[in-house]
Here is the input.
Amino acid sequence: MKQYLHPLLILGFLLSSNHSAQSQQILFTIERSLNKDQIVYFLHLDEKGQIKEKDPIQIKWLENERTGELVPINWIKKKFGYGIDVLSHEKNQLTFKFVSYDKKQFLLKKDSLGNYMVFAKINERTMKIHHIYLEIEGGSFWKPNITEVSVTGFNELANSKIIEKFNP
Here is the structure.
């Protein structure tokens, strides 16, 4: 059964942990069926409110299984699993893909309200991405057997949540 921890709960955790909400804006989360830990992707802005050139998206690990703390993701997980490759970077937007899956591109840009959000195509429509869930059945540390990926997004025009499920 999926243990979905809503980004607002993570934001509450951040605020109670003396993190600035502005400097720690959550873009989206990844959850895995292996345990309750989550990968949290944060926006990284410069002093002018522009997307930073270096490390535009910060990735942290929410250790729900052990300490409940938010810690920097380790190099191996970032390099081979949950890190991102920046494909293009302009002043107010960034196109990227995951290091472990290059068949889907994501776009970080401002939405209609002026807030930075991550967008991707879900079922041929561009949606705001909120959450990704990975169903993992066996495999190894270096090559987990991911049987299903669920990408949850929001369609502003239709005011509806959309989920795309696929086998990688």
